[in-house]
Design goal:
This protein is α/β, with parallel strands linked by helices. Helix content is 38%, strand content 19%. It has a six-stranded parallel β-sheet, sandwiched between helices. The longest helix is centred in the middle third of the chain and has 16 residues. The chain binds pantoate. The site of pantoate has 10 residues, from strand 2 and helix 7.
């Protein structure tokens, strides 16, 4: 496996566009990222993983500075997961000047849920993903369903900007307890980690209740939020949405996803379940 830090080194290894499968990450990898990497490897193309903690998608009060940088361990894990090239640029390489050109997502998708609670987040994500696509020039890129809205925003960006890359979804990986694997789980104490599974429990239970009484959606969502709050969480949202566009469902028969974000002490966790 090759580790490269510059676009020129990457291009020397991948002279032709459209010749690789790509997994963008911010590092501090876990089994979720590795399963996306193994999925990318099934295309029979060279696999590139990027590791870049993207300042543009963090608000000033968020965890950019303390986000764990674990490059050496990440490279060992990626090598074992059939990655061929790790692209780990520093900020000067990716943002040599202040990034004035930005990709503004469709507000109907980018300003709701995560975008509502983290203004500017998806602009930061789309801008860096577009830039990484420009560097790596992949044929296919794999994004995890754990960040469900991110996956949809990227799909819409690629569609609307006619970008020549196929976006593939990877399933969320969970611990035996049901807790979705996430780099931010590392901020949790053992006791908090055991408790963190309550989030997916709340989402699953909201999905079941909604299926039983779809016309009660507002009440069921409010109850789910209250119930999680009574157990010591600070929820931002727990909500049932259409899978197709994350809009509010109008027909109970359509494919749905229940999404949630809530803070446990100082750690904000997100999760979702398709129902
Ligand atoms: O999901 C992530 O880790 C990041 O948002 C991504 C897609 C690598 C962009 O920085």
């Amino acid at each position: 496996m090759n580790l490269v830090h510059t676009i020129a080194e990457l291009r020397a290894l991948l002279p032709e566009a459209g010749r690789c499968a790509f997994v963008p990450t911010m590092g501090n990898l876990h089994e979720g990222h590795l399963s996306l990497t193994r999925q990318a490897a099934r295309h029979g193309l060279p696999v590139v993983a990027s590791i870049f903690v993207n300042r543009l998608q963090f608000a000033p009060h968020e965890d950019f500075d303390r986000y764990p940088r674990t490059l050496q361990r990440d490279c060992e894990l990626l090598e074992a997961a059939q990655c061929d090239i790790v692209f780990a640029p520093d900020e000067r390489e990716l943002y040599p000047q202040p990034q004035a050109f930005k990709v503004q997502p469709d507000p109907a998708l980018g300003d709701i849920l995560e975008g509502h609670f983290r203004p500017g987040f998806f602009t930061g994500v789309c801008t860096v993903v577009m830039k990484l696509f420009g560097c790596v020039r992949p044929k296919v890129a794999v994004f995890g369903k754990k960040d469900y809205q991110q996956l949809m925003v990227i799909r819409r960006m690629v569609e609307q900007l006619a970008m020549d890359v196929a976006i593939e979804a990877g399933e969320t990986r969970r611990a035996d307890s049901g807790l979705a694997l996430s780099s931010r789980n590392g901020y949790l104490s053992d006791a908090q980690r055991a408790k963190a599974v309550e989030l997916v429990g709340a989402l699953r239970s909201l999905g079941v209740r909604y299926r039983e009484a779809p016309h009660q959606r507002d009440r069921l969502e409010a109850q789910a939020i209250e119930s999680l709050a009574s157990r010591g969480w600070a929820p931002d949202y727990l909500t049932v949405r259409r899978r197709s566009d994350l809009g509010v469902p109008t027909d109970a028969g359509e494919p749905l996803v229940v999404l949630g974000a809530a803070r446990l002490a100082t750690t904000r966790l997100i999760d979702n379940v398709e129902v």
